[in-house]
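Tutorial, part two.
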Amino acid sequence: MDLKKYIRTVPNFPNDGIMFRDVTTLFNNASAFKKVVSRFKDLWREDKVEAIAGIDARGFIIGAALATKLGVPFIALRKEGKLPYKTISEKYDLEYGKASLEVHTDAIRKGDSVLIVDDLIATGGTAIAGVNLIKALGGNIVGCGFIIDLPDLGGAKKLEGSGIKVKSILTFEGE
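Running the prediction step on this input gives:
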């Protein structure tokens, strides 16, 4: 199945010059979404995964489905101000702004092996913030998985340069 045909490209969103890769069209097709979850499971089959951390918001969709399939807990890495209990936070730069990511302080057990997932890796700021949060809680990073890699923006290389394993299902050239 050619999963790229289920990804909608929206030019100039959210800012001029950005080619937004919209995976909601992929999620809207049951067969394509099932294939993505299955591909993630296959990509990380050899690794010890004790929990899945999904990055707000599309990473929640992938992460929750994958966690259910693997029978492991799901951890929500949320945008600032969205979690109701005690949190820690990490500020980071986006390709088009600044943001902060948070996680509940009791989200994982120390030593858990955590796979972080999201829809897309661009400059890597969000994923690096997620890695830092999981490490701050005492978790071990299995790696970071994405539906889409935008290699021209260098995020995957940045993560790999920090010793983080990165696996993506699809690659799109350009921004």
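Residues 47-171 form a domain with the Rossmann fold fold (CATH 3.40.50.2020). In part three we will examine how such features are distributed along the chain.
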